[in-house]
Design a protein that fits this description.
The protein has 196 residues and is α/β, with parallel strands linked by helices. The chain contains five helices and eight strands. A four-stranded mixed sheet has the order 2-1-4-3. It has a four-stranded mixed sheet with strand order 5-6-8-7, covered by helices on one side. It is elongated.
């Protein structure tokens, strides 16, 4: 009858990461109150559970800032879409190809859709040849990620860029900085000409 009530214990870690040791939960809460910090359970599955003394609001704020920074540095792949017709004029084809080239240089994927109308649906090989021609024309910038396939009245192919979005952004920034330097040197030359 003289059984002792067991008070739960925790392994306590101090605010600077130092090991305090195994203490009762009441003592840990008392230490947290004295230091004006929060007692946060870090590893619940450990035996005994691990708790840390920390400012929980500050911890949440810092982890949110790290997550935001990680998202900011993350590159989002965007799928751009170009629509063509099987009987496209050569000039229109060049214009659409120019758009595809621009998208691939920016590091975006391109979904090329060929729309068939009426009797054109009985000649899907025309669309297939057009997509193959486009893939060959832009093969130095991208690769065929998804082969052409018929989807109802449309034929779809996806072209992925060789370089990642982040690389394309870095290249664009470097080119812009170089152009800015050239413009600046042009202004200096112009001012030296006016002085003499």
């Amino acid at each position: 009858m003289n059984e002792r009530i067991r008070v739960p214990e925790v392994r306590l870690v101090g605010p600077n990461g130092e090991q305090v040791g195994i203490v009762s939960i009441h003592d840990a809460l008392k230490l947290a109150q004295e230091a004006d910090l929060d007692l946060v359970e870090v590893a619940a599955t450990a035996r005994p559970p691990v708790c840390k003394l920390m400012d929980y609001g500050k911890f949440k704020y810092e982890s949110a800032m790290k997550a935001r920074e990680a998202r900011k540095n993350q590159a989002h792949t965007i799928i751009k879409e170009i629509k063509l017709r099987p009987k496209i004029d050569p000039h229109d084809y060049e214009t659409k190809k120019g758009h595809v080239v621009r998208f691939l240089k920016a590091g975006d994927k391109v979904k090329v859709t060929i729309m068939f109308r009426g009797r054109e649906q009985s000649r899907p090989e025309l669309g297939f040849r057009l997509l193959q021609r486009l893939a060959e024309d832009v093969q130095e910038l991208g690769f065929v990620e998804s082969q052409p396939k018929q989807d109802g009245r449309n034929m779809i192919m996806v072209i992925g860029p060789h370089k990642k979005k982040a690389e394309a952004k870095a290249e664009k920034a470097a080119a812009k900085a170089q152009r800015g330097g050239e413009e600046l040197s042009g202004v200096e030359e112009e001012s030296s000409v006016q002085e003499s």
